Amino acid sequence: MSIFPTKILLATDNSVEATLAAKVAAKIVDKIDSNLYIVYVRPRIVPHYPGFYVGPEVVENAQQKEQKMLDREAQGLLDIQVEEVRAAGGSVAQTHLRVGRPDEEIVALSEELGADLVVIGARGWGGIRRILMGSVSESVVTHVHCSVLVVRGDENGESVFPSRKRILLASDGSEEAELALQMAVNLANSTSSELHVVTVGMSNLPEYVELLEETYRRLEREGQQTLDEQVKKIEEAGGNVTKAHLTMEGGPGQEIIALAEEIGAGLIVVGSRGYGRLRRALIGSVSELVVQHAHCPVLVVRKEKHYDGIGHEAQNTPT
Questions:
Q1: pTM of the full structure
Q2: What is the DSSP string of 48-109?
Q3: More exposed terminus of the chain, fewer Cβ within 10 Å: N or C?
Q4: pLDDT tens, 39-62?
Q5: What domains can you pick out in the chain, each with its CATH number?
Q6: Helix (H) or strand (E) holding 39
Q7: Helix and strand tally (H, E) in the chain?
């Protein structure tokens, strides 16, 4: 089964990491049959004249003049990003210039388009007042209805995926971990990357709990069973596991981040939340922690949510 995204939304502010995100998105589009959309969000800025009264007509004219200037600047930067994508071998189906809060506009547009994947830089320092900062990418990861790829560069400011061909799949056997597994297999196969899989066996237990040897061994067996099941499912999905990792110490977020750095991963793939046998080993806060602190890009895979048009989550309809 293939679950490659057919609609990809690239959110950009023309910063360094947004440009890296554009290159990664272009390479993904080049590998698969999907459409790429690009959105640039500029802030809504109202001129302020403290200390004296200038009249409503002066204010309105100044507002219109500044808004037009900002629109031209934003459109110019959006055009630059389109050229970056094309230079990297990708094509762009459509561009969107939005006005407002970046995270809200990105989430809203992804829903309007029915996007399967949002690609965004981890932080931004673009031409219009740091539009895509870390908090924006984290907010998008939290609120968007679909999967999110958060891109960051290496110490030289270069993209490490897909050039660094090693993918780490973090899995606990939950429903969204199953979707992450399918996505990881497809990406590994299409980019000829090594695929590593990790299960964190004791992540749910409080630090103060002293485990008896028997309890520890039971949890270790459960963790190994979950890991073995994931390896089998990867093979059934047409993938090949380079190495399977079971860790029994520390919190899941820290363990995933540490292992990714240890093996030199170019990409971490994780479900947005987990409800597997290991007592919710990969819950939402874990994927958010990995997004915040991992050294490489992170793909957060989410079972798509659908809304009824007024902001309420609706039941998923069978496909």
A1: 0.80
A2: --TTS---HHHHHHHHHHHHHHHHHHHHHHHHHHHHHHHHTT---SEEEEEES-HHHHHHHH
A3: C
A4: 999 877 655 555 555 555 655 666
A5: 1-154 (3.40.50.620), 160-319 (3.40.50.620)
A6: strand 35-42
A7: 8, 12
